[in-house]
Amino acid sequence: MFCIYVFSDEDWLPIYVGKAKNLDLRVKQHLNRDRFRYDTWFYRWLNKQIREDKQFFVDILEEVNQDNWQEKERYWINHIKENGFNLKNMTDGGDGNNNQIFSEECQKIKSIKLRGVPRPKDVRERISKSHKGKIVSEETKRKLSEINKGKPCLETTKIKFSKTVLQYDMNENLIQSFKSLTEAALSIDCRKSSLSNAIKRNKIGTFKGFIWRYK
Q1: Is domain 159-214 annotated with CATH 1.10.10.10?
Q2: Would you give the end-to-end CA distance of the chain in angstroms?
Q3: How far is 183 from 94, CA to CA, in rounded Å?
Q4: Which residues pair with 16 in a beta bridge?
Q5: Which residues pair with 176 in a beta bridge?
Q6: Arithmetic mean of pLDDT, 169-180
Q7: What CATH class does 1-118 carry?
């Protein structure tokens, strides 16, 4: 058995509707210190209530079962909203955390917090897997183009994709310029890694009777 519950403020106004198998345990989870890492409308309200030592209440709206809890949760959320109450739920119910709607302020805060933070390898792999085979629409391409228009290219990206290699004779007279390390290595029939190591090994970068440098 499950239950549909509601958090209410000190004036008994409904704030948040949820589903629980064990209500006591679910409330403890809401009140756990981990709540501080959730930047949602509901948890901001809950943190404020606790910070300002204000009362709030948790009540059971209806007992439900495994087969109908989704329908019942959606019903109660919709019913309370239709009666003019501004619930802090981020979905229409019945879908766990799917289809969450974040406020613009919440999205900005989340973006700032994650800026410069490297994602764990398993997260990167999951993101990569989820995007494999996806076809990007022309509308999405247009939006991405608009977003990135005028943005400076990162120096690391420039180095990775457009390393120009210069070839000199032993008197340091420029012979020719290559658009990439691959092109330079092909010109003297050697491995790209061998030429790269020669350039990095010392400032002169002598290899196969020539001096090599990155531009």
Answers
A1: yes
A2: 70
A3: 57
A4: 7
A5: 167
A6: 86
A7: alpha beta
